[in-house]
Design brief:
four-stranded antiparallel β-sheet, alpha/beta, Quinolinate_PRibosylTase_N_sf, 43% helix, six-stranded parallel β-sheet, transferase
Length: 288
């Protein structure tokens, strides 16, 4: 796996999200659990078991879900965060008030299964180009409310995070270019207004647009939906003119095409696939 840093946001940021998801699930109360178990009085134990192979992601988040319900719950990760699991493998052991374990089960599992699926598919893309200089990058195509966690999962799988939001950097896409009346106008207008040190990335679809982005000193040039042959020409053009410029490839990136794209010499390859096309990694919680 290529080196990548996966940093989980602090819980002062995440707690509001986790609490809202617990409230969504619990509603006015867990009718089943509250009818069967006295609050905080009955001790319980549980294990998380993997039912499919993959990379485990989200264990610290799952632990926090249970602890928001009862601060005394102990959540022990048996499989390390970012580690590989096989079917039947114990992923975590949990001990604490039985009502907290039962009420937190669904939210915690849902998050971990979703994030583990993303990390697992991300790693497949990363491994396809592991011996090449190009780096795999995620996108802003994320589930509303889950962006911080989904991008954490891609990083855990070996990807590099692209901008987290619209305020992180400037990306001038086709609709911006159309609205501004061209790449040159778009770059000039943006450069007058953005604060230092935001970078300017421009999406290009042909060599003429690449040339225009170079003339106006874009920091990053995206080669969008280009053929491999055109992409190779664009990379050569950019390298000859300004080696400072970073090059990103995007559009129709699949596990079958990513290596050929990386071999053109681009710096980054971005794709939404690990988030939009991943399957949840099946995990189950067993009591006792």
């Amino acid at each position: 796996m290529k080196n990548s840093v996966a940093v989980l946001p602090p819980f002062i940021v995440l707690d509001q999200l986790l609490q809202s998801w617990l409230l969504e699930d619990i509603g006015r109360g867990d009718r089943t659990t509250q009818s069967l178990v006295s609050q905080n009085s009955t001790p319980g134990k549980a294990k998380w078991i993997a039912k499919a192979p993959g990379i485990i992601a989200g264990l610290p988040i799952a632990a926090r879900v249970f602890q928001l319900l009862n601060s005394e719950v102990k959540f022990v990760s048996v499989t390390s965060e970012g580690g590989w699991c096989e079917p039947g493998q114990v992923v975590a052991e949990i001990e604490g008030a039985l009502d907290a374990l039962l009420m937190g089960e669904r939210v915690s599992l849902n998050l971990a299964m979703r994030l583990s699926g993303i990390a697992t598919l991300t790693n497949k893309y990363v491994e396809q180009i592991a011996d090449l200089p190009a780096k795999f990058v995620d996108t802003r195509k994320t589930t509303p409310g889950l962006r911080l966690l989904e991008k954490y999962a891609t990083a855990l799988g070996g990807a590099i995070n692209h901008r987290m939001g619209l305020d992180d950097a400037v990306m001038i896409k086709d609709n911006h270019i159309s609205a501004a009346g061209g790449i040159s106008n778009a770059i000039n207008l943006v450069r007058l207004q953005i604060p230092y040190p935001l970078t300017i990335e421009v999406e290009t679809e042909n060599l003429a647009q690449v040339e225009e982005a170079l003339v106006h000193q874009a920091d990053i040039i995206m080669l969008d939906n280009m053929s491999v042959e055109m992409m190779r020409e664009a990379v050569n053009l950019i390298r000859q003119r300004d080696r400072r410029v970073k090059i990103e490839a995007s559009g129709n990136i699949t596990l079958e095409t990513i290596r050929a794209v990386a071999e053109t010499g681009v710096d980054y390859i971005s794709s939404s696939a690990p988030i939009t096309q991943s399957r949840w990694l099946d995990l189950s919680m067993r009591m006792g």
